Amino acid sequence: MGIQKRLQYVVFIIFLTVLGGSLGYYALFQGQPAFLDCVYMTVISLTSVGYGEVLEVTGNPYAEVFTMFLITFGLGIIMYGISTLTAVIVEGEFSGILRRKSMEKRIARLNNHYIVCGGGQTGRHVIAELTKNNEKVVFIEMDPGKISQCQAMVEDLLYIEGDATDDKNLLLAGIERALGIIIALPNNKDNLYVTMTARMLNANIRIISRMVDSSVEPKLRKAGANSVVSPNFIGGMRMASEMIRPAAVSFLDRMLRTGDRTLRIHEVTISGNSPLVGKTIRSAGLKDKYGLLVLGARADDGYDIIFNPHAAMELTPGATLVVMGEVESIAKVRELA
């Protein structure tokens, strides 16, 4: 039972005990005393404070028996409530509530962030990669063990402990303000449901969904997924690549896994009010100033990517560049763009 439900349960049974005792006194004295006096008599009996009787209990055998019954069982309930509250404090559950509220406030201030659903083998690597790229991430997972594993990988990770298929948790994660959501749950049914819900809650969000069985890909795309990823397919492609192009695979591995450097391939989209508009790739200083290698470019009105574009290519609004370089340098250029 959760902390809030436990506290609600304790308050409820104490309220029922006081109400029952008050109604009992009121009935025994046939409604002659004020109901507040009955409540007062019940409270001083349960707490054993020893104040004088406001009702004439002594000499009334029915009232005496009722009082003994009330003290015996009611005091046990009061002690149970006190012990529960003590356990809550000792176990640090109050501090957990405060931490959760603080985290929810921080999440509520986020904009243009990414949401990751699921903290399994796939989700953990997704979170690690996004944070290495200095992206803002909110993590949704219901298994405390998986949350702890992700926290061990990423310092100060923002997370929602709960079921990603619950709309409430998606809203708490700020899906209405998020740029994208990655759904890496262990089964297709949940991935499909969250995909559909995410698209309903945010029509413009980019959705990447994990696919366990390839037969569900059309359903995921119809539900709103922008892209569908199969870990089994990628694993098979990787094994084949290791066999026939080991040098290329080794290069990519060193780029992604080197501890002291964070080389990445990323995309940069030029906005209409960017100071880079009208400049060429050379004059923008992408290579000389920021150390970026421009691998490809795509104009705003086309789908084809020009590989290894010429340094004299002019940067126009809406154009997208595929660049490789240090994460910090890429972040600086993206701010300019």
Would you mind describing this structure in some detail?
Helix content is 50%, strand content 14%. It contains twelve helices and ten strands. It has three domains: 3-90, Helix Hairpins (Orthogonal Bundle), CATH 1.10.287.70; 99-229, Rossmann fold; 262-336, Alpha-Beta Plaits (2-Layer Sandwich), CATH 3.30.70.1450. Helix 8 (188-201) links the parallel strand 4 (180-183) and strand 5 (206-210). By secondary structure, the chain is an alpha/beta fold. It has helices at 3-28, 35-47, 61-90, 93-108, 121-132, 144-153, 167-172, 188-201, 217-223, 231-244, 246-257, 327-336, and strands at residues 114-117, 137-141, 158-161, 180-183, 206-210, 227-229, 263-269, 293-298, 306-307, 320-326. The two termini are 50 Å apart.
Defining key terms:
single chain, 337 residues, alpha/beta, Helix Hairpins, Rossmann fold, Alpha-Beta Plaits, 3 domains, 6-stranded parallel β-sheet, 4-stranded antiparallel β-sheet, 12 helices, elongated
Determine the number of helices (DSSP H or I, runs of at least 4 residues).
12
Give the averaged pLDDT, no decimals: 85
* Outline: elongated
Q: Biggest sheet, strands in spatial order?
A: 3-2-1-4-5-6
